Amino acid sequence: MEFIFELIIELLFESSIEVSKNKKIPKYIRYPLIIMISLFFVLIFGIIFLTAFLSLKENMFLGLLLILIGLLLIIMSTIKFKKIYLTKKM
């Protein structure tokens, strides 16, 4: 059951990423998909930072490590987002 659920979610997520990159798809389909993908990643970053701040009380090193990982992921995803969606390909 877990395999089927994972397969369906992966197919939906991967197809939405590919559709959002395609310039031939109408904007009213692409933009909600881009927003959905962005919200998913913001949720993941929020979970990482929440875990980091909660673990700062227990273990300072682990909390700082998680904050560093979260910042690194945000920087890398911002660069990737700009590369995919904001640069004009001629």
Secondary structure topology:
Layout: H1 2-21, H2 27-55, H3 60-86
Helix pairs in contact: 1-2, 2-3
Keywords:
mainly alpha, 0% strand, 90 residues, flat, single chain
Q: How can the largest sheet be summarized?
A: none
Rg estimate, integer Å:
17 Å
The helix count comes to: 3
Report how far the terminal alpha carbons are from each other: 45 Å
What percent strand?
under 5%
Silhouette = flat
Stretches with pLDDT under 50, minimum 5 residues = none
The secondary structure category is mainly alpha
User: What kind of oligomer do you see?
Assistant: single chain
Percent range of helical residues: over 70%
What's the helix-strand series?
A: HHH
Query: Average pLDDT, to the nearest integer?
Result: 88
Q: What is the number of beta strands?
A: 0
